[in-house]
Amino acid sequence: MQNIDSYVEKNKDRFINELIELLKIPSVSADSAYKKDVLKTADIIKKSLEKAGCDHVEICETDGYPIVYGEKIIDKNLPTVLVYGHYDVQPADPIGLWTSPPFEPVIKKTELHPEGAIYARGACDDKGQMYMHVKAMEFMTETNQLPCNVKFMIEGEEEVGSVNLSKFVKNNQEKLKNDVILISDTGMISKDTPSITTGLRGLSYVEVEVTGPNRDLHSGLYGGAVANPINVLTKMIASLHDENNHITIPGFYDKVENLSDEERAQMAKAPFSLDNYKKAIDIDDVYGEKGYTTNERNSIRPTLDVNGIWGGYTGEGAKTVIASKAYAKISMRLVPHQDWEDITKLFKNHFESIAPKGVKVLVKPHHGGQGYVTPIDSIGYQAASKAYEDTFGKTPIPQRSGGSIPIVALFEQELKSKTILMGFGLDSDAIHSPNEHFGVWNYLKGISTIPLFYKYFTELSK
Amino acid sequence: MQNIDSYVEKNKDRFINELIELLKIPSVSADSAYKKDVLKTADIIKKSLEKAGCDHVEICETDGYPIVYGEKIIDKNLPTVLVYGHYDVQPADPIGLWTSPPFEPVIKKTELHPEGAIYARGACDDKGQMYMHVKAMEFMTETNQLPCNVKFMIEGEEEVGSVNLSKFVKNNQEKLKNDVILISDTGMISKDTPSITTGLRGLSYVEVEVTGPNRDLHSGLYGGAVANPINVLTKMIASLHDENNHITIPGFYDKVENLSDEERAQMAKAPFSLDNYKKAIDIDDVYGEKGYTTNERNSIRPTLDVNGIWGGYTGEGAKTVIASKAYAKISMRLVPHQDWEDITKLFKNHFESIAPKGVKVLVKPHHGGQGYVTPIDSIGYQAASKAYEDTFGKTPIPQRSGGSIPIVALFEQELKSKTILMGFGLDSDAIHSPNEHFGVWNYLKGISTIPLFYKYFTELSK
């Protein structure tokens, strides 16, 4: 393709400023207090797709937040790429730990990002990575180099489970017909080691509630004589892992695919420094399932983590009380073949079964999704690989991610096409954490790499 | 004594209204947001003691909230009763569970309290019970029947550990010199079964903090590969009790006094219905240390309860995060001979020792106090017993309470005198809980019983 680099160089300030404007809007889908902002963001995405050259852009209403759809069909006989991304973001809390306000984007230079990185909630996940595709589209239409058909589907509920997107996909199979799905919502190994994500973990997210006495009690008068819901909850949660950090829920591992020694040996070749890993998050040692490496623990193995816990008196000072209720939010990351709905049922049955007398236990399933694996011999993967080779001068490494994009498995099931995960973020971008950021270099590199995927995918499809 | 009943009957509406005014002020000592209200309450107590006939009343400043002191010395050769109480209250949360605002007192009739009960934070603990003594004093001075000397010491930090009261007592032994200490900050078995508290449990209150990674992490990218502070905290807390609900901290039981079978048989005679106990707090079964009854578990046995726990995302919806930190407030109720400072050290050393690699653990001691036992053959106990006999027509039952009034052990140590615990509250008063209340009948019964203690104590002292 002609003059990608010069086009990006000429327009980079505008690309950055447009993204910064987008990041100023707190489109937090998990908290209804931000409803107006989420809707406002959808409108901005619509306009940006029109400006980028899409012929037909619409806001598709759902039972939740709308899906922004846009397309440009240049020739029915040419292949069609469906771009998926999301315009909603994770909650920003704990706000206190941000070094600059989460919705007042600033560019800071860091050791890893001498060109600067944009600090804001959603900078990388996924506004920044999603917007790379909008700008790549703009380049291809502005320079009359769009080689195939394009469809955009940008949703606003990815961070809360994409419930309404699932319905939308099931009900719009013809509209969404495509030859390959392209997503940038993952990362790469490092700035000089590009990688393509070939696997994603599934997810089951539940909330549990333990109720003891019908009111908070004085811990002196009742302490030791009635079940304390917080103590009970800690015992129940603790029992979900054994001494080797295996998950104890009966049947949990039944469908887990065990990789061959050869596959594990392949994985082990990816460059990885345990010392840097520990230093980056300031821990003196890693922790996890016995018999697996850190990279295996967070990619090919399922997990169970408490994401939040609360109960009793959490204010200033001391209160000698036995709380009536205790709560926890628990998520399980699943590997391919583990069905998230089956796992959710297994969790619910097991958790309810281990409740001691004297308490009542309620398990509320939140949301979930299936895991996913993509073969590296597909046209889509090959096209992506060649694109990275052109812009990075290196063949990208196939890599399984520990993260989840539940919708990917559904895409394959409903739309019968494979998804290619071209991620330009880094593990250090602190997505879902305070001080999330996205390197300016990564952002621009994505914009200049994506069009080459279209070129090679069209060529290889002939 | 003359016309106690007629005096109480004539003035009961005023007695109730004065208490209601006192209860309107949110004197929450644990939360600095209420500082002004706590100080305002101290002033009101000062004025009430002056009106009740104390000669010399003063607000004694401390490093924290002031202590209100008042006295009436009628004859150096007569015995002196030191009345202790507190004007601070527990925090009111969870506010949402109150059926009426905690600081807008209302009188409601209930099955147990056909005469009505005053609903407000502090109604029983301890504003209501403390104010009974002020009104009893008023009666004795108004009717010229005060038989001995009286000193009042009303503090504002009982709910946060009485740290400054301890210093005050140590530095004012002459001023506080007395022959017996009288406190109403406990309960009785039931309206028709008066009881005198002969034992109190000690307390050690700590806050723990578990720190994992230096920032919140994405649970997909890091889940399973790093220690999750919340999961770790639940495992650590769960390990503090074994399968028989014995506390596992090494040395924890070393100094626990084991009661003789005879003493336990005596205790077992106190009227108690396990069915009513369970029904009152809506639990299907009790829970506690193996080998002990419910009444033993919450009086003669030490306990460990989590009073609050928090960490990670606790807002609406879902957030897939591994928190950097998790916290818990933990209190241990101790029995006589367990030294609270030793137990706090044992806890700290043990809790830090069981922390797995990959996390840092911090244990912050909050406050504490020693347990206490009073003999039933003392003049003070006998005087209290006779007072109850007069007003209830029954001999009160000696009973050990599971609660703690840490300052009582210190009184004995510093002032060399015994404390008599004349409580008029009921377990169902919901102290420390939403909808705390105090029966009007109990309040007035206390006012008419207390002067008789002065009478008999003075007679028996001759």
Description:
The structure is a homodimer of 462-residue chains. Chain A has 462 residues and is of the alpha+beta class. Chain A folds into two domains: 4-200 and 371-460, Zn peptidases (Aminopeptidase, 3-Layer(aba) Sandwich), CATH 3.40.630; 202-256 and 302-368, Alpha-Beta Plaits. Helix content of chain A is 34%, strand content 21%. Chain A is built from 13 helices and 18 strands. The first copy, chain A, has helices spanning 4-23, 35-51, 127-142, 163-171, 219-222, 229-238, 261-268, 274-281, 294-297, 340-353, 379-392, 407-415, 440-461; strands at residues 56-60, 67-72, 80-86, 106-108, 117-119, 149-155, 180-183, 195-200, 202-211, 217-218, 303-312, 321-322, 325-334, 360-369, 372-373, 397-400, 419-421, 437-439. Strand 11 (303-312) of chain A pairs antiparallel with strand 11 (303-312) of chain B.
CATH level-4 homologous superfamily of the largest domain in chain A = Zn peptidases
Q: Identify the biggest protein-protein contact and residues per side.
A: A-B, 101 and 102 residues
> Strands of the biggest beta sheet of chain A: in what spatial order?
1-2-6-3-7-17
The radius of gyration of chain A is 23 Å
Characteristic key phrases:
six-stranded mixed beta sheet; four-stranded antiparallel beta sheet; 13 helices; Aminopeptidase; 462 residues; 18 strands; Alpha-Beta Plaits; 34% helix; homodimer; alpha+beta; 2 domains
